[in-house]
Amino acid sequence: MPSYAYPTYAYRPSPDQVRTTPARHRVAIVGAGPVGLAAAIDLAAQGVACVLLDEDNTVSTGSRAICHAKRTLEILDRLGCAAPMMAKGITWQSGKVFFRDGQVFAFDLLPEGGHRFPAFINLQQYYFEQFLVEHAATLPAIDLRWKNRLVRVDVKADCVRLGIETPDGTYDIDADWVIAADGARSATRRLMGLDFRGKVFEDRFLIADVKMKAEFPTERWFWFEPPFHTGGSALLHRQADDIWRIDLQLGWNADPEEERKPERVIPRLKAMLGPNARFDLDWVSVYTFQCRRLDRFRHGRVIFAGDAAHQVSPFGARGGNSGIQDADNLVWKLALVLKGLAPERLLDSYDAERLVAADENIQYTTRSTDFITPKGTVSRTFRDAVLGLARTHVFARRLVNSGRLSTATILADSPLSTADIDAFDGQLRPGAPALDAPVLRDSREGWLLDSVRGGFSGLYFAEAGVDPTVAMGLAALKQAPIPVATTAVVPAGQSAADGLAVVVDAEGQAGRRYDGAPGTFYLMRPDQHVAARWRKFDRARVDAALARATGH
Q: Which residue of 14, 278, 386, 426 is 20 to 30 Å from 156, comparing CA positions?
């Protein structure tokens, strides 16, 4: 029996269902999974109302996507949703890789300190969705409609007409824009006659969520050809509520229906955990994975996100995390367009940026899959040789690929970025996601990313105060049509000019991570990616970079 009590959300008729002409909405989102919910919450934060449609009346069945990366947690924190995730989730940052009967090496994904969030938390998708639903319910701008199934999509010149089926019959609505976040089996994609291109891998894997008390450390353990599962691979992760995720490679010829049966699953798990292990099956699934995507994510007024736009194999936890980043990338652009502050072509940058991210994730997961499941003698010989060398030679460990774990994509060639004209050290070039750092705000401990949320923002690194002329220019940015709220980052014992928010870089982490020599200015996008940076503040250059970053 599942250990999780699935909530049931009530279907409620909408006034739209009795109208003689379709109601008009600014944004309709199809799919109340993690991506659709995150997009709706972000739109509400930007002051944009939306209708969120879901054909079901509960959260996803089974734990599904469980590994949520540091960047995802930073996005959720900006949306006001991270606290319950952190309270319930299992924090981890290290792991071990095994080959046959021995350990190959161990790793640490976040060895340095000074970060608000861990490298990962493990949290079942049903909890993830539940917490987002609960937050969405507090936001009047979100009209969340359960048991509303999309049955028709008609793209018009100035809107999209959606046909929706409910327990009370069908009705239509018109939306200025549609976000299709309805998953791998997207009805939106099917109704529009769109298809993926890419690769389906000829292998099958068993997922078993097991409830048990166990003494395994809170780490990611991955085995290549372990003695308890000859010829295959295995993965072990801890989740909340004493649930453990176990993945076992079955091979292409495995019968999915047979392999899901308890009489097949339990002996496999006892071979792994020991004949006397006591556990209960919580959820079992058999999957075949694929690395595919749409040719384009924007189709006129319909924009695809998450699994509706792209699919990857699960190695590296890149599916769910990249979907949240899709929403993070899209919503601020759509909000600016809807408010008349940016041209519609700004939305083309969603394609330009997230196609690159999807291709990066597909490339990484394809390579992981090829290494984990070699299909030829030569590739298997190479893999086994690498694993053997990695036990004693550090250089070989970089070649071991049990899943390159999710990190945020650096949008190096983004059309919205302004190229550096000054010399900088470090990784925070234009297009990169911001890095957090501990700071003091009003003498209280805080975090730098709290200063770059809610819109375009600036970070000005000062040493002995701020020149009055520069301070006036920075303050004036806040009054622009697209305001830029600047925070001065100063070392301990220093202050900044009146009219500027100030944080103290008490440990020097912010200065080091941003190469923040005195006078340095960063222009940050609403999704906390770097738009531009200079060694000296220049209002004209900031205005030009802001225009570029908003599609003008």
A: 14
